[in-house]
Amino acid sequence: xxxxxxxxxxxxxxxxxxxxxxxxxxxxxxxxxxxxxxxxxxxxxxxxxxxxxxxxxxxxxxxxxxxxxxxxxxxxxxxxxxxxxxxxxxxxxxxxxxxxxxxxxxxxxxxxxxxxxxxxxxxxxxxxxxxxxxxxxxxxxxxxxxxxxxxxxxxxxxxxxxxxxxxxxxxxxxxxxxxxxxxxxxxxxxxxxxxxxxxxxxxxxxxxxxxxxxxxxxxxxxxxxxxxxxxxxxxxxxxxxxxxxxxxxxxxxxxxxxxxxxxxxxxxxxxxxxxxxxxxxxxxxxxxxxxxxxxxxxxxxxxxxxxxxxxxxxxxxxxxxxxxxxxxxxxxxxxxxxxxxxxxxxxxxxxxxxxxxxxxxxxxxxxxxxxxxxxxxxxxxxxxxxxxxxxxxxxxxxxxxxxxxxxxxxxxxxxxxxxxxxxxxxxxxxxxxxxxxxxxxxxxxxxxxxxxxxxxxxxxxxxxxxxxxxxxxxxxxxxxxxxxxxxxxxxxxxxxxxxxxxxxxxxxxxxxxxxxxxxxxxxxxxxxxxxxxxxxxxxxxxxxxxxxxxxxxxxxxxxxxxxxxxxxxxxxxxxxxxxxxxxxxxxxxxxxxxxxxxxxxxxxxxxxxxxxxxxxxxxxxxxxxxxxxxxxxxxxxxxxxxxxxxxxxxxxxxxxxxxxxxxxxxxxxxxxxxxxxxxxxxxxxxxxxxxxxxxxxxxxxxxxxxxxxxx
Length: 711
Prior knowledge:
Number of strands: 23
CATH topology of the largest domain: Glycosyltransferase
Mean pLDDT: 89
Distance between the termini: 34 Å
Low-confidence stretches: 1-51
CATH architecture of the largest domain: Alpha/alpha barrel
Helix content: 25-40%
Number of domains: 2
Shape: globular
Number of helices: 17
Strand content: 15-25%
């Protein structure tokens, strides 16, 4: 039996006969293994495109014209225009501070225990995993301290590449991490001289931030301070190392660690709140809010001895981290994608554990239904076999850090949650902006974390995701073949708007997974460069809609901003067939456009039926205009006959059959390009173009794991 979820407006009513027949089909009934997210965004490599091979009955090909921007988007000077900002976070009251201070431990609490507590560290040193860490520490003894130069800093402005400076700085931070772990595990002073030399070099740096966040030479020279992701992370990492090794560090160096962290990070952070002049990430929440706010809170609670000062940081954190949580949809879905879920939610989780321990359990930020939904969201966002929809700035091959999901499951007392993995020593989470040594608060020192008090996760359990995971408020829909299918395609489609954080212009974009490969996809992200967040962001097809599997209307792409959006007309779920129909009209600003509707029909495999996905785009114009749609893959396209294209990626093939209702069409292959390596395609786009302007038309593409019957 079919269950309609919503119906907001009527479908197109003036379509060709074949199109109406196609649409009539849509009205008749639709665990995760442990993986770690990649440490840094990388540009995915598309395979070399095979030439479109002609057959006796073939499809016409041509060189497609360059797409045009939406009317009015020709000159984009502010890609963030229209974004709402929250008011400055409130200054904590004396009453709030006193109430929190009364719950605090007498002394500051850091990650794990000081290295002088040999009962704790000797037990970790006896673990097999410690052997690897000791080898890393011994290697670090022979690694040089990479110089940080003005030339490296300025290379970003000259070349647009973030890598030279970031990699040099990160090599210092990773060396420090390895030496600190080696000394804490062995505790014989063997690594101490090299550690102190590395620590001194880092404290001598003029900047803890990176030039892509403020390229001024005043920052490099230490005359101006920027609080960003790496500087916040570094503050907590340094505070953690000082907490472990304070009793063996040179006293002057120990004192300098605290003073530098206060001068560069903690002091400016408090001033921003106390004066009502917040940093942008305090009022425009995204992953920065959690990473910066969480790391700074962790550093303060590790270093500061004054209980009222620690209480003030916690009071601010409750607001800042709360804003991060509120940035998710009510279903716990982040508009930034799962890569940034790992980054942002991971730091929220680390900070929440630090706050819980510091307040002796009085404040537990996990005691929140929305946090629970966020913590478990990756479980239902997987298409199949570790494949996720790479919408916006998310790696096409990336996956979330399921360790965060599992630790949260331990805290929430979910069935099957195993806490033993959170007592194993390791290097901590890695990231291109610096190692997260403090992540050991859950990775190695989280085994005894208590269950959230009086929290009944069963009341918030999600539907069985074997058939589908639908998030209507987030406008993301995932359809799967079901538990009894030996194999079958899965699909994810996302609607939303074009004014999000880490946005791509991709309303209606979709990903088709088969046999563990995203054969048809949204191309995802690349490594960032100077243009990635500039007014030129949408100059490349990776970020604008041309590089996504969505239509062009009158040769024009989707428009930019929050007023560019899709709207779900209806979503119907059935045992065999799911259907999602989307009005995409407001995503475009094209001459003569009256309505544009995309319908995705997902048919599950059954006996003698491999299953299929039909994507139909129907347009209605006030005057004849050009119309086209597209398929995107990192694999190759091969024409089989006059309506069928074979798409192959990593040896896995799908077949796309094109039906235009009799309208003549042609295809054109174009590279999907980004900024980082503009000469190397990230993916390939197969445009399907009607050869004559139309007032009304539909293009339907049927995707199947088996070729169509011979004609």
